[in-house]
What we know:
This protein is an alpha+beta fold. Helix content is 39%, strand content 21%.
Amino acid sequence: MAGQEKSKYAEILLSCIEESYFEDETILEYHSFARVISGEMRVIQGDKLYTFGPGDSLIFPNNQLSRLSKNPKDGLPYRALVIFLTPKRLREFYLKNPMQITAPNSYNIKTLDKHPLLESFFASLIPYFDLESELPEKIISVKIEEAITILRTIDKNIDNLFGNFSHTDKIDIASFMEKNYMHNITIEQFGHLTGRSLTTFKRDFKKTFNATPQKWIIQKRLELAHYQLTKKGQKPKDVYLETGFENLSHFSFAFKKHFGYAPTEII
């Protein structure tokens, strides 16, 4: 068997090459987080040559032209675990964990120093490939969120790569905002998550909703809060955070201004 890419889970891949194997030039669609378990991988990007062996962990930025050589070594096949970090997963993560963009990213391969968090993470993945049934989506989601959290812990600049969506296609503002307006992040961060600069986001938002982002978001959050209070019988103290407000007093003020009565007046 020349090579095998074994994965039941699409976003988590076990690569196994038992014979000498060479893959031509390739461009990865997604950011990829990898650990070489055995064998050797060589990567050529431009005029740079990278060589990785057992225990090495690395991050491949997306959309970079690379030439990969994956070979058995020391009597062992080439084996590697790869986590594909799709824009969808990254957007979901940053909705809950605001990004910290500090500088433009170089888009070079990142090599990671050995770290206990990396060791325990990859060790936890290997047994999954012995399962006969598919890994539940919830577990896949949790493991990918764990991977991003670990990478942010050991590399304080990783958001410069993962949080930059300008290298991906712009996504539809209407569907994204209708699903995510209750998340308490800045307008600039909403722009990043839809693949736009702040200026472009505001312009496209105005074309889509005929309103400014701030005004539309506040109105949608208030309407959701009103529904939670009147139809589900929740209390203001339980609703304001869930609908994206930072504090109860600001929520109460905005609610009364919009509806003409305080949320505490709802019976």
